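Why run this: before we spend reagent on co-expression, it is cheaper to look at a predicted model of the complex and decide which construct boundaries make sense. The entries below are exactly what would go into the expression plan.
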Amino acid sequence: MRRQIAVIVIAACLLAVALPYREYAHAAQAPNKDPGLGLGALAPGATARVRQAIAAVGLILVRNDGDPQALRPRGSAVVVRADGVIATNLHVITDERTNQPYDELVLNLPSDNPQSPGANGRYRLRAALTSKEYDLALLRIEPDAAGVRTQPLPVLEIGDSRGVQLLDDLIVIGFPEKGGTTVTVSRGVVEGKDPARNWIKTDARVLHGNSGGAAVGDDGKLIGIPTKVVADVQPVEKNKDGSSGGVRLFGAVGFLRPAHLVANMLRELDGANADPTPAAPAPPAAPAQQIPTPQPKSMPKPAAPEAERRLKIGVVPPSGTTSGAVKVSGAVRASQTGAPIAGAIIGILAPGATQATESTLLAWGSSNSDGRFELNHPVPPGRYTLRAKALGRESYTRDIEIAAKPTPLVVEMTPK
Amino acid sequence: MKTITRFLAAALVITGAIAVPGLADSKKDEQRARGLFISKRSDAMTIVVLKTEGSELVPVSPDQEFKQGDQIKIQFESNFAGYIYIINVSPSGSKQILFPTADQTDNAVKPGQRYDLPGGKEVMQFDAEKGTEVLQVIMAHDRIPYLDSALKDSEGKLADSAKSAAAELEGGIVGAKMTTVLPAGGTSKVRSRDIILAAGKDKDPQGSVVAIPDDNGHGGKLKAGEAAPFEIRLKHN
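The model came back. Tokens follow.
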């Protein structure tokens, strides 16, 4: 009897599925949604918001140098910042054999997604920050040799993962293997919360390949990253001939890493980026670990002409650009007196953008007591829109040209 | 204690933008601002910088220079029921909401009640980093959404994410009728057209008084959607 219990417990506990795609086919997944529960309608407008969120979820493709095979799907990922920061699970980008990130990481935002008509394409990625503790990773989209992406990326806004309540609606978005190459969504509820261990539990279906994708609330904001499934699998009695009766799947619980962990990593990433010597080896940090920037890798040789290739990978340089992103700095002062203005916020918007949003804001910073500022992300030389705002001042907007060797910007603001 | 840590990390320094001497009409302004505060004809507040001397906290003028190890506390009082936000702009330009705190998010103020920053017996202490820190103080009758969002999402850090920065760039303190009381001329000019000020002096228990002018004869009351910001600069050499 004791032995039987032991077998059951072992079988029941560990179909944990932090696991993406085909090479992990041994880890059975649970269709754990009970259709008989009959969930009610989503909140008004929720469907449209969730559909909008779908645009920011893509498929991660991987390959190692020397691999004879083509890029292969490995899991899902979500665009969390307009300047090209992607969140996924660490295990999605890690080669189990070497315990290192795959040499080649590519995000595929599907071109057939009607929610992202302007953002389709492939983006080469590099790992920027990882957390073994939480099985999370932030990746950056790399510019190609010609410049950088200027097409605004669809961004999934990070929601209030601490504030979710039991039975809140929740939709898992991703690219499970069984769903083919197009996006697949699954609806469920928040089934439980485990703040001590940083988990949100759900009955929404989580399959191979959902890892690293998105779970959104009915506000269309990111609640969590689908990370693993624990299935309740128990052995079936032996057949009459004495052979094994196999196992029976009773259900499963999907586990999400709360989105606030991603937000924390983004803050940490910004801190790391503030280091003016990005080529230096990253200091060992816990719980997150900075990954040294690998050498840029070439995309597979395009079969299409250059223009088409750029379109497909979504990389179009701004007009007049040369390669090499530069730091942007400057000063904010009062137009009438020249006095420095402290606490102004200054942002660089994508060319043609008329409004600062998560999608269009490429770099930003605030002025100190001397009015001086430095933006948080380097930007490639080119044309942009500069916007600034300060307490008691008129909003400031003008088009600017960032040169390869930029001179400090001067922002003169007038009183309201 | 959390507030103190954040403040120290920012290397607090005090400035005297609201306490610069030498204004020709400073006497008149002082009487007027204090009169408006007491009479409640205008929305107004007092703000005092207290410094530890021996075992006591004593009022000091905010335009003095502070040195490493100096301990201070900010004390303020409004004559209106509304909301007060205090934002710290560090020498590097990063912005952190000091009041309210991420833990204590109720910044509704009542008239005649004195508030301490930090609360209780805690104080803020200047560390080794020299420079100028700015305290931006905002008076309002309503909550300010982008600041509340920063408290909720990023423990009071402003422009901490693209979302937060975009919200500040597009929204910030909105409303065309916003009353501007930010001193426009740095330390060379204290009085702006939208603020009158009684500058705090050493040992003055009431400190600096900031009031909305009542030039239109109907009193300087903030309306819904309006906010009145001003700043205090703290120098640390």
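The radius of gyration of chain A is 24 Å. Chain A has a mean pLDDT of 73. Bring this page to Monday's planning discussion.
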